[in-house]
Specification:
single chain; alpha/beta; Rossmann fold; two-stranded parallel ribbon; 11 helices; about 40% helix; globular
């Protein structure tokens, strides 16, 4: 299992600081909360628990959970008072669901981000770290994806997350708000929900294989992704939060910098679970999906010192072990 020593990586930079994590009971958010607590921060979580789970969070005196969402301005204000840093992760996250319910995705991911920024501006938060999405790059074929490329969102989810980036940049330009957007590439790991029809591919494959079913691949399996273990995203958030210089709404990729096809992923997982007797089945590609993703990490390294700390192989082994212990 992966066991990241956050103190050795980040020392005492966040010791005693009061910070807010929106969406902190969710998959990535809860991993970030646990790291922040290890580093001695006093953490407030704002989450409406529609996708997150209180069971993801420990019960501690230095952790406060505020139940509410990012459309609830009084709840945001209550949670954010006295915080130095805001990690904004709260979002709806499914590309296919956004295609059927675009307005809700705009409300939560677009308007909700404006609400977080506006309250942060009024209460004097020092820094905002926004969880953005590599879906902003869309279906362009050029690889790797570099932050200077034109955005080509192919789904309401991608468009709404990109709107959030633009507002982060605008607030950093117009107001005394220090901010950065982290464009995640296909984050996976323990606690990613395997039961939703909109589960990420690694969660969905894990559930199927452990139930003795064949993994179902949408498309022909040639699509490739820069699969990124969750601790890498947590590390990037912590680096961004503790960066000593001014952050002006920049966008940086957060990934591993390697890509694997969905067919290769399925083969690796079948081997990891000891079910190489199973063979994937194929279904039509989903609207809004992009063919390939691969991140350039040069800017993230130059700006905040980011390098991945967990490889795909180690992360996949840890994730499969977690699903095996949870679903078996």
């Amino acid at each position: 299992m992966v066991s990241t020593d956050w103190k050795s990586l980040h020392d005492t930079a966040l010791l005693g600081q009061r910070v807010l994590v929106t969406g902190g009971a969710g998959f990535i958010g809860s991993h970030l909360v646990n790291a922040l607590l290890q580093l001695g921060a006093r953490v407030v979580v704002l989450d409406n628990l529609s996708a997150g789970n209180r069971a993801n969070l420990p019960k501690r005196d230095d952790l406060e959970v505020v139940e509410g969402n990012v459309l609830d301005l009084p709840a945001i204000d209550h949670a954010m008072r006295g915080c130095n840093t805001v990690f904004h992760l709260a979002a709806r996250v499914s590309v296919p669901q956004s295609v059927t319910d675009p307005k809700n995705y705009h409300d939560i991911n677009g308007t909700g981000t404006v609400n977080v920024l506006e309250v942060a501006r009024t209460v004097g938060v020092k820094r905002i770290v926004y969880s953005a999405s590599s879906s902003a790059y869309g279906d362009g074929l050029e690889l790797p994806k570099i932050e200077t490329m034109a955005e080509r969102p192919q789904s309401p989810y991608a468009a709404a997350k990109l709107v959030g980036e633009l507002y982060v940049r605008a607030y950093a330009a117009c107001y005394d708000v220090d901010a950065i957007s982290l464009r995640y590439f296909n984050i996976f790991g323990p606690r990613q929900n395997p039961h939703s029809p909109y589960s990420g591919v690694i969660a969905a494959f894990s559930k199927a294989i452990l139930e003795g079913n064949v993994p179902r691949i949408t498309g022909d399996g040639s699509a490739s992704r820069d699969f990124t273990y969750v601790d890498n995203a947590v590390h990037a958030n912590l680096l961004a939060a503790t960066h000593p210089g001014r952050l002006r709404g920049e966008v940086v990729n957060i990934a591993v910098g390697q890509r694997r096809t969905i067919l290769d992923l399925a083969a690796a997982m079948l081997k990891e679970f000891g079910r190489e007797d199973l063979r994937p089945v194929f279904a039509p590609a989903r609207p809004g999906d992009v063919p390939h993703s691969l991140a350039s990490l040069e800017k993230a390294n130059r700006l905040i010192g980011y390098r991945p700390i967990v490889s795909f192989e180690d992360g996949l082994a840890a994730t499969c072990a977690w699903y095996r212990s949870t679903l078996s």
